[in-house]
Amino acid sequence: MPGENLSREEARERAALLSVERYDVALDVRSAVGAVPDGTVRTFRSTTVIDFRCARPGEPSFADLVATEVASVRLNGRDLDPAKVYDGARIALDGLAERNTLVVDARCAFSRTGEGLHRFEDPEDGEVYLYTQYEPADARRVFANFEQPDLKAPFTFQVTAPEGWTVLSNAEPEGAAAAAGGGGTTTRFRPTLPIPTYITAVVAGPYHVERDHYARALDDRSTLDIPLRALCRRSLAKHFDADEIFTVTKQGLDFYHDTFGYPYPWGKYDQAFVPEYNIGAMENPGCVTFREEFVFRGKVTRASYEHRASVVLHEMAHMWFGDLVTMRWWDDLWLKESFADFMAAFSQVAATRYTEGWITFANRRKGWAYHADQLPSTHPVVADIRDLEDAKLNFDGITYSKGAAVLKQLVAYVGQDAFFEAARRYFRRHAYGSTELADLLSVLSETSGRDMPAWSRAWLETAGVNSLTPDVSYGSDGRVVELAVLQGADDPAHPQLRPHRVAVGLYRRVPGGALERYARAETDVAGPRTVVADLAGQPRPDLVLVNDDDLTYCKVRFDADSLDTLRAHLGDLSDPLARALAWSAVWSMTRDGLMAAGDYLGLVLRFAGRETDIGVLQSLHLQARTTLTRYVAPARRALAATELAQGAVQELRLAEPGSGHQLAWARFLASVASSPADLQLLRGLLDGSARIDGLEVDQELRWTLLGALTAQDAAQDADIAAERARDDTASGHRHEVRCLAARPSAGVKERVWADVVGSDALSNALVEASIAGFVQAGQRDLLAAFTDRYFAALEDIWASRSIEIAMAVVSGLFPGLQDRQETLEATDAWLAAHEDAAPNLRRLVLEGRDDLARALRAQACDARAAEADRSGAAL
Hints:
Blueprint: H1 8-17, E1 18-28, E2 43-54, E3 61-64, E4 69-75, E5 78-80, H2 82-85, E6 90-93, E7 99-109, E8 116-121, E9 128-133, E10 155-161, E11 166-169, E12 173-178, E13 185-189, E14 202-205, E15 208-217, E16 223-232, H3 242-260, E17 269-274, E18 281-282, E19 287-291, H4 302-318, E20 326-327, H5 334-351, H6 357-373, H7 388-393, H8 398-414, H9 416-430, E21 434-435, H10 437-448, H11 452-459, E22 466-474, E23 480-489, E24 500-509, E25 515-525, E26 529-531, E27 543-546, E28 555-556, H12 560-569, H13 576-591, H14 597-607, H15 614-631, H16 637-654, H17 660-672, H18 676-687, H19 699-711, H20 717-726, H21 730-742, H22 746-756, H23 764-774, H24 780-783, H25 787-800, H26 803-812, H27 821-833, H28 839-874
Parallel strand pairs: 1-10, 16-17, 17-19, 20-21, 22-28
Antiparallel strand pairs: 1-2, 2-7, 3-6, 4-5, 4-7, 8-9, 9-14, 10-13, 11-14, 12-13, 15-16, 18-19, 22-23, 23-26, 24-25, 24-27
Helix pairs in contact: 3-4, 3-5, 4-5, 5-6, 5-8, 6-8, 6-13, 8-9, 9-10, 13-15, 14-15, 15-17, 16-17, 17-19, 18-19, 19-21, 20-21, 21-23, 22-23, 23-26, 25-26, 27-28
């Protein structure tokens, strides 16, 4: 990896020297089909022509390329010796003229890690599928280029592929003709508008294609007509609900046109759902790619459809934020990702049937941000990205969801009209160009009249999260004398107190038992204590909710009376957003060791069954599972697991037959079941001897049940083999690998370790499945033997694997389940002995250490609470 790195300084120097006029890229991917000799790397031919200018003729520079072989390099008509100018990652360019043409003929490797041009062979029908994924810098694995976001140019792609394949790129094809030599078809595409390398795209294979179109009248009386296509593998076509995808797509295009005032510039809009994808989706203009798990093979809850809609709208927002206007360097990655995350929730609520988008944002997306912002690797939204390795690790909860939450706060601060007028000016002023933070602040200052640099310094250029706590005093008549908001910074390393535009809500129980808001005030919180004057004189509340309506980004805390109310009546909050905020707050307190894990699980057992929002319910299930696994004191785990499983069975039987809630409780039961009775119920649901009215045990749920049984040693290899025979698909293969890795056997764990750590033969998807099966909370004793081996292997993993796989292995196999002080000490010892290790390897280990330390603190809190309960009972 280090040889493929690129520093920010190198990129700045190259951008000052070079400007790119055009790319012409020819790929011959016919070699994707057919056999190759064992041990042979499967490659394709890549020919690139780049026309570019040099501001200071005579100065040297370089182009980027990661290839298995470079046949020829020609610069301005001169043949260069590849052995002398190519080092495996860069092509040295000397003697540049004012205008230059570089021609590179190479062979590049098909990817099995989701980086570059990924090749997938469908086990169901043997068909081969290709797609590209480049962000931040993997286009160089497919063609020679200048791999940095600010060197934008038009691209013309030509792809030679097997006969009968669908071939797509960013632009529409100009035409197709029979390929010379070896059969197949060559498709040449129209030139794109100027774009950076990382959002160019090629998708090729015998994909199933659905078609539609979008039309819109523009202000100048012309009509914008956008062809729409949605693609998936042929073997998934029977599950493909393209009509729903097209509906959300059209709603999004309507909304963004109305809001941004800048017509969609990329011609067509293809959306390809592709196999073994590392991320959720990628915003390639005109050719968006998604992970194919968004094609649902079985029954899923409404939350899954909502999440898919959010991702569709997120990528669509990038057509403007990121594609039309691109950040100059990865420091300003937030200029596209934060905006896309914010716009996804905003447009979802405004334009689709998923009007609960802000509830999901508050409960799930911001939870990701709060977690990332409390790690030792936290960073400002505008990050310090020294090189490409930094960039890869900064696609995180801060860049996406904290940035989006900050933008939501910004809308409250400057007003919605000023915010979107700034966006419109930003697009018009910088179309097809590259920008930095100052460019956005400039238009925001123009439209809002606010001091945007000061706001930026507080919110975008500092790290850490503030906590907001109500401080209330009452008179003898029971009314509020004074209500203040206390602001704190929990981490001494990040003491910044920020200006917050917040709403404070007062809630009380009404006849019938509901907790309802009866008073609300918005105010600007600044400094350590702010009085909310508008709430003086109000009747005494049962609950004070700071950050009501979720306007700002903060950790919400409670006064003692409010916390007592939540312990007894959290489920009585009638407003779903307020309820989601309360759940988020008590979860944060549990993670911070301020609420005992047992108390949090008690809240889940009492009130989760009354949760109406399915997305919130599924978040509660995930958090309860994490609490059981990581935060409950070890001595209380068995009892807590039994109580959770009993609660899950009860709610499963009470849930509306056929509902998403019923399905969610069934999956949660599988995740916590451990007693013989629980496992017998899972086995009965799997083999049909037990039935729950309305619960459809489809193929995906079958794998969930079997995975749980396998991890508990309640299913055998023959059961897994039979299930794979029943589901002989790519998804079935991944589930099989996960289940096989989950078996509680030392020999099994050794084989999985060898497959993942000792070999690079597995694809990215199978590495992910293997790790998911290997790491089982109920198998701590089996996994203990791998702690020392993990630390011994770290540097070799980082040096020998692609960064995507290295990140998955280093993070996924961190021995966090060995939740003892000795593991913390072993981690510290490795860090102390490897101060010169790759900074981003150290970052991942530090993050694992922080989660482990947090778990130990939470367990100590839970143990103290248990001891207090025992002491109280004894008295």
